[in-house]
Specification:
Length: 240
């Protein structure tokens, strides 16, 4: 039992692109929002895994690539947002999730939350790791948008955060999109203020500007790491 627990006490996270990541937890691989993988990282990693899970948060082309069907022989389950319409995935391995649904089996626990864009976000429990992937859930405050639209975006975000408040996560993937300019971290700041995040990984890193983590970023002193990947193939190790 001790050897088994040691096997799962470390996670290797590798950045694919945009909001795409692959997590390795012992003999399990979890892939979120596969979009592009020019270095063929996923195919190499999953060859040696006993369990392989794909998650698709929504239908946008930069979050869902039908090519994930090519891995079906190695895949344990595909967890797909309700807005993704596709006939290329094997039905017997595909779980369609609407907002606020739960899936449980002896190997994995998955809860879906809503989004402030298309689709859903995911809360995954696997081998004593609690993982949140926001998909396109964010406080999308666009400078060029109307006042009414930005108020609507804020209200949608605040409403969803009421459901997430107090959630404890070992790893959280959350958008920090520099196209939002000075408002790029509105969402992640509020998210980390009302949840408990041990390791934060930024994603949807679109645009030219790098995020400089503020000194007063909420609960920063309680976190083990904040990682802002930029180059596909970069990896980050997280230990319990």
């Amino acid at each position: 039992l001790f050897e088994v627990s040691l096997m799962y006490d470390k996670v290797k996270v590798t950045y694919l692109l945009n909001s795409g990541f692959i997590l390795e937890i012992g003999d399990c691989a979890i892939i979120f929002d596969y979009y592009q993988d020019e270095k063929n990282i996923v195919d190499k990693i999953i060859q040696d895994k006993k369990e392989v899970y794909f998650f698709v948060s929504h239908v946008h082309y930069d979050h869902f690539n039908p090519k994930i069907s090519e891995f079906k022989d190695k895949v344990t389950k595909y967890f797909i947002s309700y807005d993704v319409v596709t006939d290329v995935l094997p039905k017997e391995k595909t779980i369609i999730l609407d907002e606020y649904m739960t899936y449980d089996d002896k190997n994995i626990h998955v809860r879906s939350f809503s989004s402030t864009d298309e689709g859903i976000s995911f809360f995954v429990e696997k081998n004593d790791w609690k993982i949140f992937h926001a998909g396109d859930f964010n406080w999308w405050h666009w400078k060029g948008d109307t006042k009414e639209n930005n108020i609507f975006a804020k209200n949608g975000f605040v409403k969803q955060m009421m459901r997430l408040s107090g959630l404890k996560m070992d790893i959280a993937f959350f958008p920090v999109d520099s196209r939002l300019e000075e408002f790029l971290d509105l969402g992640v700041t509020e998210f980390c203020k009302v949840t408990e995040v041990k390791n934060l990984i930024t994603m949807h890193n679109v645009g030219e500007k790098d995020w400089i983590i503020p000194e007063d970023f909420p609960n920063k002193e309680k976190m083990n790491s904040i990682w802002c990947p930029k180059v596909p193939g970069e990896s980050h190790f997280i230990t319990k």
